[in-house]
Protein 1
Amino acid sequence: MRTIQLFDSRFLLPVVALALILLTNLILSPEFFHLEFKDGRLYGSLVDVLNRSAPCALLAIGMSLVIATGGIDLSVGAVIAITGAVCANLLNSSIDSISLIVLAGLFVGVVAGAVNGGLVSFFGIQPIVATLVLMVAGRGIAQLINDGQIVTFQNPAFASIGVGSIFGLPSPVVITLGIFLLAQAFVRLTAMGLFIEASGCNPKASSYIGIPVRTIKWSVYVMSGLCAAVAGMIITADIHGADANNAGLWLELDAILAVVLGGASLAGGRFSLPLTLIGVLIIQAMTTTIIMSGIDPKFNLLIKSLIIVTVLLLQSPILRGQIRGFFARKHKAENSAVVESQS
Amino acid sequence: MTARPAALQLNKICKSFNRVSVLRSVDLELRAGEIHALLGENGAGKSTLIKVMTGAYSADGGEIILGDKTISPQTPSDAQKLGISTVYQEVNLLPNLSVAHNLYLGREPRRFGCIQWKKIRARATELLKRFDLDINVNEPLSSYSIAVQQLVAIARAVDCSAKVLILDEPTASLDAREVALLFRVMRDLRDSGVAILFVTHFLDQVYEVTDRITILRNGERVGTFATNALPRNELVAHMLGKELHALEHLSHHCPPAGREEDVLLEADSVTIANGVEQLNFKARQGDAIGLAGLLGSGRSEICSMLFGLSHVTSGKVSLAGKEFRPNSPAAAIKKGFALCPEDRKTEGIVDPLSVRENLLLALQAQKGWWRPIRAQQQKALVDEAIRALKIVCSDAEKPIGQLSGGNQQKVILARWLMTKPQIFILDEPTRGIDIGAHAEILELIRKLCAEGMTLIVASSEIEELVAFSNKVIIMRDKKMVGMIEGDAITENSVLSAIATPV
C-alpha cells in the first residue's frame, strides 16, 4: 500500500517542478551537478542546496503535522532564536557537557510547543493567534536571555552540529535526514499519521470515534517545537553565535510554503512528509538558481514568488477543473463539427 | 371562508443538489390574508422551498407566480423588492445598530446625500406603534429581547411593503408571553391582507394561529388542509409518512423478553443538562429500544447523554448495576458503547479519508495509535465489512464522500461493529438513505438484537420503530411521557401517544 502511495499522482507536480528547476541550473552552469570528495567530505552545489535547506526542512516537518490537524505554527522562527540563545549562553557557562546543552535546547523546544499546543487544544484559541503570541514574545525572550547582545562562543564540539560532517555529508543534512526518517516512522509505522489526518479532516467525527483529538493536536505542536529546537541549534552552531533578532527570521513562512508546495491544504487533512521535503528543496534550489543565473538580486523575491504562484495555481482544483473543462469543450466542439460535416 | 386570491403561487417546484432531488414537483398556494403553516420533519424540504421562494436558491423547474406575474428572484434582496420578506429564527439584523437604523437600513431617507436621522427616528417610532411596541428606537437592537428583535424584523419586512411574509421558526426561542404577542401581530397583519407562511415544529401553535396547513415529506407535498378540518393524529401521520413499502414484509417483531435481573442499562428519573427530564427505562441484553417523538422532542438528547456528550444533572444512570457517568465519547466507548450519529456528514464520516480508513478508525482508536492494524489484517477486516453489510464501493481506497448516503451509513455501522459494542446507539440511522439500504439496515438491527446486542434507536419514522422495537419511549417537549412495550407497539398506539396534546 505504501509503494502505491509513493507513486501517487500528488507527487507528479512537485517532483516535476523540482526537476525543472534543477535542469535550469544545469543549463545555467554545467558544474551545478559537479560533486567533489575532498578531506573526507563531499563538496558541490547540490550539497550546498541540501545543507542550506536543512533548517527549513526541519521546521517544515513539524509544520506538516501541525497543518494536517488544521492548525499552523507561526512561532517556530522565534523558537529557533530562544534555543540559540539558551545554548549559546550555556556554552559560555561552566557547564561543559555538550549532550546536556543539546538536551537543554531540545527542552526549550518541547516547552514552547507544549505552550502553543495547550493554548490551541485545551483553551480553544485559534492556532494563528496562539502561536502569534510566541512568535512575538519569543524574540523578546531570546533578547532577554542574550541581554540584547549577539552572544558568540568558541566550542568546536557544539559547532560541529552546524559545520561538521558525518559520513562525508554536512552534519545538518544527516541530522535532518535522521529526523525525517524518525518522524516518518512515527507517523506511518504507527496509526499516528491516520489519527492526525482524521483530526484535521473532521475533528468532531474523530472525537465521536474515540480518537483523543485534543491530545493529538497538543502533541503535534510539541513535535513542531522540537523540530524548531533542532533547527535552532544547527543555525547557532553554524554561525558560532546566537542572534536573537535574526536567527530563523521569517523561516516559519518558508516552512509553511514548503508544506503547501507539497500539496497539503491549510484546512487540514492529508499530509506527506516526503512531499514536504520536496517543497523545501524547490524553495532552496530556486534561490540558488536565481543567484547563479546572474539576474540582478533585486529581482530575487519577485521571481521566487512568481514561480511559487505558478506551482500553487497548477495545484488549484478550480484551475485544473477549468483547464479540463476547456479541453473537454474544445474536444466536443471538434467532435460535433465532425458530425455536422458528415451529415 | 371565502376563497381569497392567491398572493403567491408555486407550481411544480423542483430542486436537486448533486443529483439528489430535494424538492419534487411541489405546489404551494398562499392566499392574501391567511396564515399558512408549512410543516414537515427535518429533510422534508421546508427550508429548501423557502430558499427558492426568497431567491437564495434558484429552482431547477417549476414557476413562482406573485399576484399575476411570474417571477424568478435571483437573490433574497430581489425577492424583498418584489414583496417577499423572510424573518428567520436567528434575527438577521445588525444588533449593534439602533432599532431605528435597523428599520431603515439600506433605505435611509436622505436630503442632499445626508441621512435624516430625525426623520428616521420619528418614522420608526410611528411604525412600531402599529405593532404596539413602545420602545426607545435609539437603543441598540441587541438591548431588547429576541421577541422584540423579531417584531422589529417583521415591522421592517412589512414596511418594505411585503405582500408575502415568511416566518421561519420564529417562536423557537420565545416564551409563552412573547409568542402571544407575536401571534397578535400576525393576526393583525393577516387581517390587513398580508399572506403569511409560518414554519414551525410546535403543533399547538399551528392549531392556535393558522388557517391552512401544507405538509411536505421527503421533498414532496403530502397535501394542503384547512387547519380546523385536520385532526392532530392525521397531521402527525402525514408528517411522519407511511411510504416504506420496502418494509411491509417486516411485521412487528418483538424480541423475547429477557429476565429482569439481566438489566444492562437503567435510567432512574434522569434529568440531563441538555434539557431532557423524567427519563426512566431499563434495557436488557438483546433489547431494541425505540425513541419516538417529533423533532426537538428530546430523542437525540438521550443519545448524546448515553455517549458522554451531555451530562446527567439529577437521577442516576447505571450500567450493569454500577453508576455510569461518561464525561466524553471515549469514556462511553470504553464501556462498550457505540454511536451512529444523527448528522452523518459532520459527525459521522471523516471525509476525504478513504473508505478503508473510515472503516478502521474506531477499532484503531480503541487499540491506540502505537498498535497499528497490519496491512493484511486491514484488508481482511475491510473486505469482511464490505461483504457483510453489502457496502457498494468499487475501491476501498476511494474517499468516503464519493459513496451514496446509504453506503456511508453502512460504513459507519460497520466501523462500530468491528469494535464489538454491547450497547449500540443509533440516532436516525435511516435518514436520507435510499429504500434498499433502509431495509438492509433494519434487517441488521434485528440481527444484532438477536445476537444479544442492546440497541437504542432514535427515529422519526414510526413504522421503522414498530418494525424492530420491543420497547418504545415516547418523548414530547423534552420529557419522557410514556413507554409502550411488547405487543402494544403499533403504529397507531405510538402515533397517538406522540400526538396527544399536553
Note: Chain B touches chain A at residues 307, 328-330, 333, 339, 341, 346-353, 357, 361-362, 364-373, 375, 415 (CB under 8 Å).
Protein 2
Amino acid sequence: MSLSNGTLNVRVARIEAVTPEIKRFTLVATDGAHLPPFSGGSNVVVLIPHENGTYRNAYSLMSSPYDSSAYQIAVRRVEEGRGGSLRMHEAVNEGDVLEILRPVNLFPLSKHARLHLFIAGGVGITPVCSQLAELRLRGTPFEVHLAVRGAEHARLGEELVREYGDAVRLYRNDLDQRLDISVVVAARPLGSHLYVCGPESMIQDAIDSAHAQGWTDSHIHYERFLEQGSVGEAFSVTLARSGATIEVSPDQSLLEAAEAAGHSIPYLCRGGACGECETRVLELDGEIVHTDDWLSDEDKAANTKIMPCVSRAKCSRLVIDC
Amino acid sequence: MTIQFRPDETYRDDYTYANSPECIARAPFPFPDDEYMYSMNLEPHVSVGDGALKAIFDIDEHYISECRDRAITLEKDPGMHYVSAPHMMEAQWDLLELIMESYASDYPEYFTLEKDGTRWHWTNTLLNIDDTFTFGDPSTLPYEPMEYITRQAQGDWVLQEERDGTLYWGAGIATQRADYSLRFNLGMAWHEFHGPVPLLKETGMLDRALKFLLRLRCGHPVRRLNWSLTVNPRLDVSAESLPDWAPDRTTVTAENAGKLVYLRIELQPLHRLPRSNAIVFPIRTYLLNLEDIATNPAWAKRMHRVLKSLNQELVDYKGFTRYRDAAVEWLSQFDDGQDEEVVKAG
Amino acid sequence: MLITGIKSRPVYDQLRPLPGGIRHLVAGQGSGGRAMLRLLDEMPEQGMQTTLLYSQESFSGLDFLAELQQRQVAELRVYPSNQELVADLERILGNARMGTRLYLSGSESFIGTAMQVATHYDMNSDEVLREHAGSFVRRIWCVHCDSYTENVTQRVFQCPGCNAMLVVRDHYSRRLAAFQAVKADAEVPGELPEAEELDT
C-alpha cells in the first residue's frame, strides 16, 4: 500500500457483474499489504481520470470491516450521469491500478441501539453490507428490508439472505411484493434505530412513516445516493482569496471547477452531506440552488453559505470566501 | 534506536525514579512563552526530531518500570483504574491494533506483530511477552483488549465515543491521573468533563477544539501538550488516593523544591480509530523535577516566569497553591531578568 | 487548599409537550408534581395516551397527589419512594415502544437516577425532558469508599460510608447521577475548609 497525497493505490483484483446495472469491484493494495481498517457504512472516493481531468466519485465499502485484505465497492451504471460510473464500467479492467482516498464514514451505526432496522432500495444495499458484518460480530439484533425491481436485480440481496437468513427480507417489485415501511417501523421496542439508503422517495416515505409512529429524528438515519458532483446550468464564481473568476460548466460542480482551475477546497464526501466544504458567500446577485443535506433551512434561505460540492447558482455574480 | 532502560525504578514509597541527562533533553517542554494560558495548541502529530515527538507513541528509559507501577496500581484496586462501557469493545480492538502496529514499526527491536488473517502473533521482549490470539475474540486474551495492550504501554489512555455531535468518555485506563476519578468521569460528554477547568469556557476554545476534533480523520493524528505540578515522582495521583499523596504538598520548601517538585508534562497524540469511529486520547506523562529542568538554563528561566505569573485560578485547579511560592523562589536563582536565553526554551 | 471553586451542574429543561409522541410517561416526585400538572394542562388532547408516575417522597414535604388524581389520564401510578418509582419505570421502559416520550420532574437525585434508566434504553434528548423542582439538595458520591449520600446541603460533611470529612466538588457525573466528594482535610489532617451551605 502506498500513500501519496493522502491517497491509496489499489489494484483491481476482480470485477463481477452482480446485476445488469451494477458491477462489484474488489480492490487490493498494490504491494499486497493490508488496507486501512474501516467501519460499517464507510465510503471511499475513487479518482477516475478522464480527458479533461478527474472524476472523484464516492462509493460505499461493502466488504467486512474485519477483513482489511481487500475492499469491495459496487458501482451502478448511470447512463444520464456525467460519465464517472460509465468509465468505471467500460474503461476500468481487472489488473488496473486506481487511486482512492482513505475510507470516511458518514453513515455510522448507532452504538447504543437495541434493534437496527435497515430499509434499502437497489444499490442502496451496499453500505448495509458492511454494517451487517459489523453487527454480526457485535451480536445486536437487526432486520433488513430490501426492495428490488426484479429477479435479475436481486443478487446482492440473495447473497445477504444466504449469509443472514430470516433477518433479511427481499421485496421484488415484479412479484408485487410491496415494502410497506409503515409496517416495518410500527410498534418497535424503545431504542430502535432506522437506517434508510435508497431513492429520494423511499427516504421520504421512511421518514414520514417513522414520524407518524412517533419516532424522533435521533433514531432515523439516511444516506441519499451520493450523486457525485452536480449537473445544471453553467455559472461563474469568483474566489475571493485569489481573486480568480472561474466558469462552472453544466456537467461540473463548483468544487470540480475550482479543482480543475488549480484551487483546492477542503472536502470529504463530495455529496453535500458532511459539511467539510461549507464556504461563506460574500456577494450574490441572484440565487443559490442549494441541493445539500448539510445547511439548515435558515442557512439556505439566508444565502450566506454554499456547499461547493453539490450546490449551484443562478446569478450574475457570486463571490465566495475561498 | 537503543534505549538504556532503567528497569528497577519505583514511583512510590522510596521513589527511586530518576532521569538520565538524555531523557531530560528529549522531553517535550511545554512552555512556548513566559506567560501560560490555554491555547488551541493542537498540531499535526508528525514525526519531529529525535526526542519525544519522533515516534507515533513514545517510549523511553522508564518503560519497564512504568509498566510495573501500572500493574501494582491495577492489582491494588480492581475496577478503579480501568473501566470500559460495554459498547466500546470495537474501539478497544482498534486501540490494540494501533498501539501494536505503532510500537512494532517504531521499535522493531523490542516489539513484533505478525498477522495471519485474524490470527495475530505479538511479542514484547521488554516484558517477556509472546502471545498468539484471534483479533476480534476477547476470549483469546488474558484481559480485555484495551487493558491487555495498555498494561504494555506508557501513559494513560482514554477512549472517547462520538455521538450527538460531541465526545463521551467510553473507556479508560488511568493509573497516572491528575486528581480525577475515572469511574466518575466515565460517560461524561466533552463539556461536562471539562466543567471543572477554570477560565476555559469563557475563551470559546472548548467549542472550537471540539469542532476540530470531530473532524479528526484516520491517519491524520494531532497532538497537544498539557502540564501540571506534582510532589515526588508519583504516578498514582488519583482523586481516590488523595489522602495518600496530598500531605506531600505540605513538605515543599524553597530549599527542597528542586528535588521534590516535579513538572508533569502530558503529551497527548490524538487519533481517530477506524472501526469504532472513536477517538483515543493518550496522556503520556513525563516527570522532571525542577533540578532536571535546571540542567537547561533556558527552561528554568522560562518556567520561573510561567509559575510566577500564572493565574491564581489555574494554580488552584492544578493543585499547587500551597507550594507555588516555594517553587518560584527555588527557580528564581536561574532568572537574571535578561531575555536572550529564554527564546531558546520555546 | 483543595479545589472547591469549580462551576458545573446539569442544565435542566422546562416540561412542555414534546411533538410527535404517541405515548407519554410523566414521572415526578414531591414538589415536581406542580410541573406535572402544568404539563398536563398544556396537552389536554393526550390524556388517554398519558401515564402518570408519582412518588410521594419529598424533601420539602409538598404533595400533589390529590390534584393529580383529578386529571383524566390513562393511568396514575403512585409510589411511597423515588427508588420504587424508578424501579417501576425501568420495567415500563423495558416493554415500551418507539414513540414514547418521557417527562421527569423532581429533585436532582430523582431526575439523575431516572435518567440512568432512560439512557439504558437509548432514549435521547428529543424524547426526554427534565425539569428540576424543589431545593438543590445533592446526591453525593464518595470517591474514597464508593458510597452515595442523599440530600446533602453542606459543602463539608461526614461520609456515612467511611466517616471521612468530605468536601463536595461542583462536578456532576450523569452515569453515577451524583456529585463528587473528596477528603476535605487530605493535605493536613484536621485542617478543614470553611463550612458553607451549598447553593440549595
Note: Chain C touches chain A at residues 20-23, 93, 96-101, 121-127 (CB under 8 Å).
Protein 3
Amino acid sequence: MFLYKLTLTPSGRPLLFPGEVEVVLMEATDLEFPSGAGGDAANPREKLTAGVLTLTTARILWTSTSAGAYFVPLPAMRHHEELSRGMFRTKSPRVRFEVFVTPDVHPAVQPTSATGHVVAAFRGRAGCDPLVASLPGILAQRAWTRLPPTVWLTSPPPTSSTTNGTNAVTTTTNNSSNHNSSTAQQPQPPSEETATFFRASDAGVAGILRRQERDSAAADRDLSEAFADLNALKEKASAMVSLASKLKAAVARSEGGADDKRATEDVHGWLLSLGIDSPVTKESAGALYHQQLSRQLADFLLVPPTGDKSSHGAPLTAAGGMLSLVDAWCIYNRARGTALVSPEDVRKACELWPKLGIPIVLRTFSSGSLAVVSGDFDDDVVDAKLLVLMASDDVESARSTRPLEEAIRLARHAGGLRSVGVTEAARVLGTSLELAREHLLCAESRGWLCRDDGGSGLRFSYNFFRDL
Amino acid sequence: MAAFLYPPFYAYPPYFTLQPVEETRAKQVQAWKALIFDFCVHHNIHTVSADDHADGTVDVLPDPSSPLFVNAAIHRALKREAKVVFLDALVAEGHGEWLEADKHRCRVFFKTLAEYVSDVRRWVDENALHGSVYTLYEMAEATEIPDEWKRLDRDVLHRIFVACQSSGVSSVFGGENGEDVGVKFL
Amino acid sequence: MRRRPGISGLQRQQAQREAFSDLGSVAASARQLAMEEQLQSFQSQLAQFALKHRADINSQPAFRASFHKMCRDIGVDPLASNKGFWSEALGLGEFYFDLGVQVAEACMASRLETGGLIPLDVLVRRVNKRRGTAVSGEVSIDDVKQAIGSLGKLGSTFKLEMVSGKYLVRSVPGELSPDAAAAIDVAAQDPDGAISEDSLAQRFGGGVGGLVRAREALESFMRDGMAWVDGQREPGKYWYYLPASSEKWSEVL
C-alpha cells in the first residue's frame, strides 16, 4: 500500500492541519508492507525503518530523518489489530492496519471495496501500548470531520496522469456541504482516482504561523494590536466565566440524580475547558477527561512496558511501590512526549482512583508532600527493613522482607547504637532520598526510631526507650 | 599539552573541608574522586600522595604550578584526612591501590586492573604472542607493544602483569638485585 | 462537545435568552444547548486570537506575563488542564509543562549541593542552560514562577519563599523558620553567602542565648543539607556557606 507524502515545516516538523492535535508519539517505529512493497509510490520499498509514528486527531504520521515523511488519514482506517507475538518473544510488538484503498492503492477517505495493509513494528521502550490504547478513542471521536472542509482534497496522486484542476473545484464544494454528516460522503470525481493531500494554501496558514513566530522573536515587535485583542478577549472570557460559575452553582445544588450524572460530567467538562476549578466531590466523578486520564495514568504506573528487554517493570513497581507525585508527573509527561498533562490534571486523576476502584492511593505525608502508593504497599515491611538496618550494616540482608517481630528482635538484640542516615535508608529501600526521609520520619512517629543528633546530618537509631 | 581545566567546584571553598553531613559529603567525594582521576590521566600521573609534607607543601607533583589538592587563588588546601577519604573512594572503584597499609601513597589506575588484564589477554591472543618473553625495558622499545602501555609508569606496568599472573595470562620473574623484570605471556 | 438532537431556531433563541436570565427555571437540555453554543462562540474567538497572537505569547515574555495577569483577573487558570481551551489554542501546555519538568529536574540535579533550597535567579540560569538553544529560547523569571506555581499543585513540595526581598525556590518539603530566614539574610551580606556562628549570634542579640539560637539554626541547615562547612576561612572556627544566600555559585551548585 502506498502512503501520502507528509509536508514538513522548514524545521522538519510535521505540518498539521488547523485544529489537528498530536496525541501519541511512538519512537523507533518501522512500517512494513505485507504485500511486498509500499510507502512512496515513486520509490516502493518492503519497509520503512527507524521513524517516529505520530497519532493525531486526523491522521497517522510517520517521519524519519532519511526515509521521508508520510501519512495515512484516519477516515481511511477500516480495522487495526495487535499481532500476536508468536513463538519468539524477542519480536517487537506489531499492529496491522487495514486501510480502504483507491484503485491505485492509496488510502481512500471513504469506504471502498478494496483494502490494503501496513504493519507498524514498535521497537521503542513503550511497545505498542500507548498507540493501541489511544487509537479507538481517537477513531470514535472522528475529530477530522470538524476540520475545515478543504483539508481532504481530491487530486490525482503524483504518479498518475489524469485531469486535476476541475476535479478539485467540484469536490471542494461537495465536501463543504457534506462535512458535517456522520459518514464522509465525498463524491467521486469523474476520474477514478481519489487521492488526497494537503492543499497548498492550508499549508500556507500553518506556514504563516511559524513565520510569525520567527518574526515575533525578532526585535521590536509592536504589540499594541496584541494588547487590544487581549482586552477584547478578556471581555468575552469574563462573560463565559460568570455563566459557567452560575452553572457550577446550579449543578452543585442539584447533584445526585442518575440523570444528572451526565449533565454533571458535561458541566465539569466545560469548567475544565475554561480553566475554572471544579473539585471532585463525593457525588461526582468530575470531567470525563479526568476519568480517562485516571485510568491511563494507572496503566502507565502499573503495567510493565512491553517490548523492552531492559525494563525493570512498571514504573511504580520498579520504585518499590511508592513514587513521589512530582516524580510520577515528570516521568509520565516524559513518556507522553507530547500533549503533556498539567499538574492539576494528574492530581485530579489520582484523586479519582478510589472511585474507579483502581489499586493505587494518593498519600499525604505529614510534611505535606504527596506520593502515589500501590495498594499493596505495607508500612510494616518498610519499618522491618529499617530496623534490620539498625542491627547491622548488611544492606543485602536488610533488603529482604521479613516479619516485623523478627526485625524488632534483631534490632533490640544488636544492642549497639548503630545510626542510619537518609542515604543508606534510600539504598536499602530502593527509593528516592526524599521518600527515604519520609519513611524514616514515619518510623520515628510510629515509635520505632529516634533521632540521633550527631551533627553529621539527619540520622536515626533504634528507639530503645520504647522497650523501657 | 593543553592546560588542565579545573571543574567549577574547585573554586568553592567548602569543597576543601571534609563535610560532616553524609549527603553533602557524598557529593563532595564524587566530585573530588572524578577530579583526581581526570587530573592524573591528563598529566599522566600514577601516584598520588595523601600526606601533608613537612616543608608545608601539600602536593608533590611534576608541575607545581598545576596543583591538585591546593587552590592558591582561594587560599584553600585539602588536609590529609580528606585526601584519604577521596582516594579510598577511588580505590573502592578499582581505580586505585594504596602502597602502604597506613595509606600514604596511592597508585592510580586509568583502567581497572581487571580491564587491563583483559586487554593484555586480548592482545596476546590477537597477536599470537603466546610464549613470548619481554623485559620491561624491551617493552619500552618494541613496536608491537601498544602505546597505551608504553605511557604507563613502570611500576604500574609491573603491577598489571602481576595481576595478569593471578589470572594465568602471564608470568612475571626477575626484578631482584637490579635485574630487570621479565614477563612471559602464556 | 456532545451533539444534541436538532432544536428549532425559535426554541434555541428562547433558550439562550433564558440561559442568561434565570438558569434555575430553564429545562436542562435547553440550558446545555445554550451553554454549548456560547462555548463554541468563545472557542472561535479564542482561536482567532490564537491565530494572530500565539506566536507573540510564545516568544514575548512581557506579553505572556500580561496574558497571565488577565487570566488571574477574570478567575481562570490557563494551565489548569491541557484539555482547556487556553492550552489547546495557545499551546501553553507544551511550553509550561515541559518547563515544569525541566524545573523539577534542575532542582533534583542540585539537591545534594543545595539541600533543595535555591535562589530563583540561579534556578532560572540553570534551566536556561539545560534548554540550550531550543526554538522556544530562553525562559524568563516569570515563566519559571508560573511553572513553580503549577508544580505546587503536586503537593506542598514545590514553593516559592521570599527572604529579604529575594525569591528562593524550595523543592523539598518543609518550611523556613524565622531564625533560618534570618540566617539566610545575614549570610547574604557576605559576598560568598557564608556566615559564622558568631555573626549569626550577634543577629540574635548576642550572649549565650544568641549563640544557642545560632547554633541550632546552623545545625538545622546542616541536617537539611542546606549548608557546607569551611574550616579554613578562619582558624579555629567553622564558617557555613548557604547556597540559598548567594548567586555567586550558580556554576558550582
Note: Chain C touches chain A through 75 residues (CB under 8 Å).
Protein 4
Amino acid sequence: MSLKIVVLAKQVPDTRNVGPDAMTPEGTVNRAALPAVFNPEDLNALEQALRLKEQFPGSTISVLTMGLPKSAEVIREALYRGADQGYVVTDRPLGGADTLATSYTLSQAIKKIGDYDIILGGRQAIDGDTAQVGPQIAEKLGLTQVTYAEEILSLDPEKKKIVVKRHIDGGVETVEAPLPLVVTVNGSAAPCRPRNAKRLMKYKNATIAAERTPEQAEALAPVLEKKPYLNITQWGAADIDADPAQIGKAGSPTNVKAVQNIVFKAKESRTMTGSDDEIDTLIQELLNEKIIG
Amino acid sequence: MANYYNDEIKFQLNHPLMKRIVELKERSFADKDEFDYAPQNFEDTMDSYDRVIDLAGDIAENIIAPNAEDVDAEGPHCENGGVRYASKTYENLDATVKAGLNGVTMPRRYGGLNFPCTPYTAINEIIATADAGFENIWSLQDCIETLYEFGDEDQRQRFIPRVCQGETMSMDLTEPDAGSDLQSVMLKATFDEKENCWRLNGCKRFITNGDSDIHLVLARSEEGTKDGRGLSMFIYDKRQGGVTVRRIENKLGIHGSPTCELVYKNAKAELCGDRKLGLIKYVMALMNGARLGIAAQSVGISQAAYNEALAYAKDRKQFGQEIINFPAVYEMLANMKAKLDAGRSLLYMTARYVDIYKALDDIARERKLEPEERQEQKKYSRMADAFTPLAKGTNSEYANQNAYDSIQIHGGSGFMLEYACQRLYRDARITSIYEGTTQLQVVAAIRYITNGTYLTILRELEEESVSAEMQPLFDRAKVLADKLEACVNAVKEAQSQELQDLAARHLYDITANAMMAHLIVLDASRAPELFAKSAQVFLNLAEAEVAKNEKYIANLSVEQVENYKA
C-alpha cells in the first residue's frame, strides 16, 4: 500500500543568525541581509514524510512551495533528500500575501495536485512565526488537522487511520485521526536526514521555467525529453484557478501597522552572595511561583 | 552554514591534472545515458565533486564534529562476541549512509559514485577533521578497492553493492606475533573439500573495526610455509559467522574506532585472487591505499588542531590583549598553517598520481593499453609508490606536531580535558604508527631517494614557471633540491649499508622538505591569496630543517655507527 504525501515548504530568511542589519529602518525583515534557507520545521515535516515513504514503499512525496522563483531551491533541497517531485507557485499577483491568502493559494495548488492521503508541513515559519497556514489549509480543504506533531507513530492504510504523538505543554499527547489529513510538525521532531550524494548529482540542474534564461531553456528542451525530472513544475495564479480577490495583497486583510524593536530588560534585580541558605530560599521561591518545577 | 570544506581543499581539487584524471575515470562520459547521476562533461564532473564534498563538509561539521566528544568519552564495547559502537557513532553512520557517502570510488554499475581518489581524499580529510576515530570506520570502505581489483566478477557483484549501501569493512592482517612483520602471519586457512570452501582458524589482534560486515583476511593457506609466499587473501562475510570479538583494546586515542581481538573458529571464507599472492601483491595494494588514507586523516587532524588553536588564540586575553597578538603565539600558528598547507599539497599530489595510474589500470582490465598509455601508467604508478610513504610519514608527524602546538597555545587549559585539543593530541599519536610507522615509511622511501626518483620529480617541477613574486622562493626551493642531491651522494660515497640506514631518516626529511617547498611555491604562484604567506613561512622552516639534517649527515661516519648502538 503506497501513500500520496504532500509536504509544504517555505523558503525563509535565516533569522536564526541575525546580524545588526537584519531589520530595515522601516521595521521589516531585510531579506537581502539574510541568507534564504529551507524553513527548519518544514525539514522536520519532510523527514516524517520520508519515513512514511520508507515504511510504505511506492509512496510518493510532492513538495509544494509558494514564493519567488528562487524558492525552487527548497524544492531541490527536498529532492536531494528523497522527495519525488516539486511544485513552485510563483506569480506577481501572489506577492504580499498574509496567512489567509497564502493558505488559499496553497489549498488551490493542493486541489490541483489532487490525489493525497496526508499533507505535512512545519508548525510555523521562522520569518512570520504565525503557525496559521497549516491549520487554515486544513479548514479550506475540509480536512482533519493534527498540530504540534512530534512523531507519526503508526499509519494504517487499510483503515485509513494515523496515530500521532503531539508535543503539548508539559508533556506529550497521542492522538488518532482519519486520513486524509493535515499534520503540522514541531521542531522537536526528528531532524531531517542529510542530502544524498547521488540525488544531489541527479537533481542539481533541476529548475523551474522562471529560473532559465531563453538560451538555457532552448538548450534544456531536448534534454527534458530524456530527463523530465530536471523540470520542476511551475504554476501561476491562473494554473491553480485562483480567485484574484483572494490572493496576494488583495486577498490579505492583515496590515502591519508598525514594527517595534524590543530590547528585553530585567525588571528587577537582586544581588546574592551565593550562600547555601540563599540558594535554598531562592529555589523555594521559584518553586512557589511555578517558575521551575 | 559553516562547513569544513575550505578554500585550501577546493584549490587542491582544481589542479590542472584533474582534467586527465576525469578523462580517464569517466571514459568519454560513457555512463551519462545509463545513470541519472553520471556527469555529462568535465565541468559537470567537477561540479559534482564540489557539491558532494560540500555535502560531506556539512555532515562533518554539523553532525560528526558535535558528536566527537561523546564518542570519545563513551567508546565502543565488546558485547556477546561483537562490537557495540558508542551510541553517537550510530548517528554518524546513519548520516553518512543516508548521504550515500559509501563506495565513493566504486564504479556506478555496482552502485558507487565512481569518484577518483582525489575527491575521496578530500571527503576523508574532512571527516577526520570532525572526528579521527569515526574516520577510521568510514574510510575502511576503501578496502573494497582491493576486492574490486583482485576479486572475480562474481565476488564483485556480491560484495561491492553491499559496501556502496553502507556495510562496513575491515582488513584483518595483524596478529600477536605479526605486526610490522606480516610475513609471520599464522592464521590458518584450510580447504574444506566437503563444503567446497575455505575455513579460517586462529586469532587476529589490533583489528580496526574488527566486527565489520565484510573482512579481508590475510591467512596462511600453504601448510608448512613460514614466509610471505605462503599467505593468501580471503574474504570473510559476517553473515556466515565463525568469528567473534574477544576483546576491545583500551587505547590512548581514536576511541570511537573499535580495535578488536578476533577469534576465528572454522570460519567459512572465500579466496580473493590467487593463492600465495596475499601478502606480496594484495596486501601491498591494500596498504598503499590505507597509507594514503592515514595521510588524509593526518591532514584532517592537523587542520582541526590549527582551527582549535587559532580560535583560542583569538579569544584568550592575557596582559590586556588577545594572545594571538604576541609573536611567540602567532609564530607558532604561522608554522602550524605552513606545515598544514605544505603537507596537504603533498597529500593531494600523491592522490592525483594514484588516480592516473589506477584509472589506467582499470582501463587495462577491459582493453590493451596503447604504448603511450602504458608508459603513462608506469610513470604515475612509480610516482605514486614514491609519494605515498612521503605523504604518510610527513603528514602524520605534522599532525603530532600541530596537535602538540595546539595544546601549547591553549596553555594550562589545553592540559584540561575540557578542550578538544587534548583529544586531537591523543588521536594524532597513532597516525605515525599504524599502517607502517614513520620508520617503515622511510624504509619504503629510501630506494626512491637513493635511485634519484624524487630528484627527477623535483627537477621536473622546477621546469614549471612561477609568478615573479614567487620566483625568489622558487630559487630557494631549488637550492634544497641541490642539497638533497649532495647529501645523497655523500651517503652513497661512504659505501656502507649501515651508514645509509642510519642516515635514512635524515635523507627522508630533506626530501620531504624539498618536495613540499616546491609544491607550496607552485601553489602560491597559482593562488597567492591562499598560500603566499604559508609559502614564505614554509621556506624558512624547510631551509632550517634541511640545514639541520645536512649537518647531521655530514657528522655521521662509518666509524660512528657503533656509538649509536645501545
Note: Residues 169-276 of chain B form a domain with the Butyryl-CoA Dehydrogenase, subunit A; domain 2 fold (CATH 2.40.110.10).
